[in-house]
Please model this.
Amino acid sequence: MKDFSSTDITRLYREEYAQALNALGRFNLAIFGKTGTGKSTLVNAIFGDDVAATGTGRPVTMGLDYYVHPNGILGIYDSRGFETGEAGDRILAALSELVEGTRSADATEQIHAAWYTVRWSDRRFEDHQATFVRRLHDLGLPVIFVLTQVPRNAQGAIHSEAIEFAQYIAGLGLPLAAGGRVFLTNAKADPFLATVIFGLQELLDATFDTIPEAATAALSAAQQLDWGRKRQAAKKIITASAASALATGATPIPFSDAAILVPLQIGMIARLTAAYGSRMASAQLASLVGSLMMASGATTAGRWVVSSMLRVIPGGQPAAMVISGTVAASMTTAMGWAWVSVLEKYLMTGQDDDLEGIRTAFVEEFRSRFKLTRSGKPELPPGE
Model:
């Protein structure tokens, strides 16, 4: 088994990452409301990116644009501010054509949910707005009603007039998703007014509960608020990859052939990266993964494993030693969680330029998770 080069790893990662993103599909959200309701702030708080600024956009009709995030897993239909009369009719007509045209199309082309936003301080919800909500529902779009910029202090008290306004809207009998609930939110803290961010997790949970199953993986990857959901997805990916490694090692393989596991592990890393919705450029990620795999020694036909891990086995003969299914699965599991650690500490927190720190962290995390006992059996930290 020849060793993998960094070029081999980079090429393989690019292919696997493209497949992983394609498997996730796309979550499409339509968001409506008057100018000043804070639609962009709300979207940025949950999805972590200004999609309009970083993605590719195209006009759907006058007053409505469609933006796709660079990684393709998130699409936003954004109104330029609520319009009435002819402009509002034009938006609804375009949406009707879009919904009808994609009804039997791939899930990535469909609108999965709509957020209708009203600024609480307006304290007014007019008949034409109610009509617009009803017409969205008639198009088959699940509408989640969001009150924005609601004041809530550090003690948890919400402005009483905002609560009354929400109760009023909920009592109108509008055809709203999420059980007709009106979601009170604030997406930006204001120290001067002593208001805090709140309500976003509830809005995200309601969106997950509303959309079709086919769009949940893309929403989980696109959102940057609930990391628990990302870790659940990561656990499934790592468990499945470890099972494949276990099968690969069902017939023990020589350490000199350890690189046979590399394609499997690269595929796992690509799927984990996609599941976290990393904003790092694909080419840069591919180069980084290549260098990390080389640094960890995982690509060098097992020589790093032999020299670093099996020295604890008295009298061991590296050339004669083999990787069992259990060891292969444990090595893969350790590598997966090491990559999750790098994602959460560096790639998802804007520290993706610290390449040396990333390399060091990955190797240390891998080595701390993959250990062999003196009998040659794997020993992993509990609770992963």
The radius of gyration is 25 Å.
